[in-house]
Amino acid sequence: MKPRISMITLGVNDLQRSIVFYEQGLDLPRMDSPPGVAFFTLNGTWLGLYGREALAEDASVSGESSGFAGFSLAHNVSSEQEVDQVMTQAASAGAVVTKPAQETDWGGYAGYFSDPDGYLWEVAHNPLFWVGPSDEPA
């Protein structure tokens, strides 16, 4: 397998609510998508939103779950101020701040929020590991 992730698909309970959160609340660029799914372009990958039950059925697994899903998504930014800005934007869009942005024990600055379906996003500034627009492949 080649080392890349092409798409991250989140199974959501209310597709329209999640579209509004990601498109209008977080300003992610939405692609043309067929009914019942939404795609957003990210730098080097895509984010997909699909009905939770439909996604579980597609994967032949149970759609039931509770609590922590065992993973988080990360959004790395170029400064502590940008962490604060993204956290404020997410909260204004309806996210729940689960851990306010603060200095970390690994020398960075980070906080966590959860989207309308409880998916965790870490917003972080790591001065030793910044991946930004200038680092994208040509």
TrEMBL record:
Residues 4-126 form the VOC domain. It holds the Pfam family Glyoxalase. This is VOC family protein. CDD domains: VOC_like. InterPro entries: Glyas_Bleomycin-R_OHBP_Dase, Glyas_Fos-R_dOase_dom, VOC_core.
